[in-house]
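Appendix B. Raw example, untouched.
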Amino acid sequence: MSYTITKEQRQHFHELGFVHLPGLLSEGEVDELEAVYDQFLRREIEVPGKDFCDMAGDYGRDPDDYSIVNVMLPRRYYPAWQGNVFERRAIDVARQLCGDGMTIDYDQLLAKQPHKADAIFAWHQDMAYWPDTPDTRTATFWLAIDDSTIENGCMRFVPETINESALRPHVPQFGDRGESHALGTDLLDTDEVIPVPISRGDVTVHNERVMHGSGGNNTDGFRRAYILALRSEETVKIERELGFTHSHNDETDVLDNVGIEGQTR
């Protein structure tokens, strides 16, 4: 089954930096992904080093205390997931939004645990994390495994940032990049924040420059998200030649040179 993007959805993505696509996956398709997703959360699938961490704290935090459980590159650690229905549909939609030659750059799981008011994902622009490349086209898919609400920390966007001449200044949120991966920037009083609650099976898709973040989880349940970032084949090739894989186990100097120095582009 394909998913056809409307002219209005494409325009929204390019003019505001994000778009909400309802019903990208059916309930049954989400069920299949959810079964594997929860194996990662229960640590039944091995994820080494810093690729299993808390995005709301430093790398030394006890897993029992994680607020935002982060699994980087699940398709690397569970190869059977490669080519799943979400990947196939995202590749097709990314082509409709961004043109030909789009491929998966990385995947990620982000699960906010119940009653974690500090499960806050800092305001940031994705390009602050990445190396500078000639082709910056990006379509990052954020799939809701659970209904994503204001109460449990849905995505929030600041559209005007896509028109600014440079990225906002970003700094590490918990020590330096060797202690925590998270970068963040400041929300200005003049910024208009648009929260985007979505239902299970829906996605938001955002580009490389729109500032976004999310609040804590003040509910009884998890807020689970499955992320796929698609970029051009040439861009992914350049990243890998630089030794940049999006793994938190990458050398610290690679992360520093990309994430901090690269923020002026």
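End of appendix B.
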